[in-house]
Amino acid sequence: MDYRLYYSPGAASMAVHWMLIEMGIPFDVQLVDIDAGNQRNPDYLQLNPAGRVPTLVVDGAPRHESTALLMLLAERHPEAALAPVPGSADRAAWLELMIYLANTLLPAMRDWFYADVDGDPAGAAGVQALARRRIEEACDQLDAGLADGRDYLIGGKLSTADFLAVVIMRWTRNMPRPALGWPHLARYIRGLRALPSFIELNAREGLTEWRNQDD
Ligand SMILES: N[C@@H](CCC(=O)N[C@@H](CS)C(=O)NCC(=O)O)C(=O)O
Which residue range or ranges hold the GST C-terminal domain (predicted)? Predict the structure, then answer.
């Protein structure tokens, strides 16, 4: 199996990058500097016509959407056991959470960061206000789910949901209410950030913010 991840440090690609590192399988990476606008280079648009990261080239075919990529990798690498298998007790909760993160939280994050680019700048403040409400509601919901002291979101073990949730939580760090302000979420995040794969991920992406030693 052959993988090449097109990524930008700290972007949605980070969840996929984390999973690839955690699985310990061979893969290549290619930096797409979105601050420099390189996601709109013609060569990259051939791979990803929307001009977004991530793209994961899987056995020569470019594939998109971070959530779908996490689910695809879990399916292609059952030995890594990073998703409950079909028919198992935790499968429904996993599907529900993956879709919730993709369908509710990721679009709200997009709106928070890109309101003035994706839409009319004159309406950006209103879009951001609604996005912030949705993001904080999601933090409430995740925090409530973690109140029983669990270390992982689903099934008592690390799964794709944790990669995605923690990377999204990282994006709240400069928002008015960062995720670390929710008590159960904070304990959970610190546990996940202690994983060797997360530490390695930050090193490989050159990220020096939002690590356990930083707060
Ligand atoms: N739903 C997509 C969202 C991808 C996305 O919006 N990526 C951002 C970075 S986190 C991006 O490519 N931004 C550059 C741009 O839109 O120009 C996914 O989850 O993969």
Answer: 87-215
Q: Is 24 helix (H, G, I), strand (E, B) or coil?
A: coil
Q: What CATH number corresponds to the domain at position 65?
A: 3.40.30.10
Does residue 111 share a domain with residue 179? Answer: yes
Q: What spacing in Å lies between the alpha carbon of 8 and ligand 1's midpoint? A: 10
Which residue puts its alpha carbon closest to atom 5 of ligand 1?
A: 52
Ligand 1: which residues within 6 Å by Cβ? 11-12, 34, 39, 51-54, 65-67, 106, 110
pLDDT at 214 over 90: no
pLDDT digits (tens, 9 = 90+) for 61-89: 999 999 999 999 999 999 999 999 999 99
CATH number at residue 104: 1.20.1050.10
Query: Ligand 1: distance of its center to the CA of 154 in Å?
Result: 25
With 80 as the cut, is the pLDDT of residue 215 above it? no
CA–CA dist 171, 104 (Å, integer): 15
Cα separation, 41 vs 93, in Å, equals 39
